[in-house]
């Protein structure tokens, strides 16, 4: 099956295609055609055969350390369903850590978040522990934080471009629905799914989240549900995230992308974005600048 090599930089260094051709030659491959997806930013090369994508990508990353690289099947590149994580993917940082900061508990909660995202501890247990620390926080603080989020570069262009191409887009998060609702509207997702923090009659968080929680299994089930609803196979889906609780959906999707991710997810994903912004997920599918919204 033919493969496509996509190279994305900010900007691409000079001579990048010649470097790529030399490395491909060492693997017994050569480009049969090429295309500029974004001037000075993204190019794709169609290869004359099939090689070991992991080894080719690893060699290219060593030679081009600031360039994002993906070797993917040339067929069925454009996906019909998008499932995206929120924290540290669509938005910068972890919203639960920001909530904890309002109570002076950011360091303690952040340490648990980091371990959970690395897959070192159970996500559900870690969520319960962190949510318990938020007891007594005014629920209005959630809305304040949601209104002041910093969005990941390229996030809106990524989502709105896929939606404009007829893709069903969902935001799924181990975070909280009062935040995902805002992010959904801001970035152009069709729907969102996240945890719900219980609020007492005094308007303050009780320190509990409604069960069952949104975890890795929920994300995978959501991916399958979306594919079934859209009438497509998992191979027609794109899933993107950054942490261990995204691994199941990223591995199951036809195109699974690790975005500035923890080691566990980087190793599992079919593609990675380590240096550039979220528009790179579009370039990996063969979108050109002319097709990118905004």
What does this structure look like?
- The chain contains twelve helices and twelve strands.
- The chain has 294 residues and is of the alpha/beta class.
- It has two domains: 1-75, Alpha-Beta Plaits; 77-294, Rossmann fold, CATH 3.40.50.
- It has a six-stranded parallel sheet. A four-stranded antiparallel sheet has the order 2-3-1-4, with helices on one face. Strands 8-9 form a two-stranded antiparallel sheet.
- The longest helix has 15 residues, at 216-230.
- The mean pLDDT is 95.
Layout of helices and strands:
Elements: E1 3-8, H1 16-26, E2 31-38, E3 42-47, H2 53-63, E4 68-73, E5 81-84, H3 95-101, H4 106-117, H5 123-132, H6 140-147, H7 155-164, E6 168-176, H8 177-187, E7 191-195, E8 197-199, E9 205-209, H9 216-230, E10 237-241, H10 247-252, E11 255-259, H11 263-268, E12 271-273, H12 280-283
Parallel strand pairs: 5-6, 5-10, 6-7, 10-11, 11-12
Antiparallel strand pairs: 1-3, 1-4, 2-3, 8-9
Helix pairs in contact: 1-2, 3-4, 4-5, 6-8
CATH topology of the largest domain: the name is Rossmann fold
Count structural domains: 2
Number of strands: 12
Portion in helices: 25-40%
Q: What can be said about the biggest beta sheet?
A: 6 strands, parallel
Low-confidence stretches: none
User: CATH class of the largest domain, please?
Assistant: Alpha Beta
CATH second-level architecture of the largest domain:
3-Layer(aba) Sandwich
| Principal-axes shape call | elongated
Beta-strand residue percentage: 15-25%
Q: Which structural class matches the secondary elements? A: alpha/beta
Order the strands across the largest sheet as they lie in space.
Answer: 7-6-5-10-11-12
- The count of helical stretches stands at 12
- What radius of gyration results from the CA coordinates? 20 Å
- The secondary-structure element order is EHEEHEEHHHHHEHEEEHEHEHEH
User: What number is the mean pLDDT?
Assistant: 95
CATH homologous superfamily grouping of the largest domain: HAD superfamily/HAD-like
Distance between the termini: 34 Å
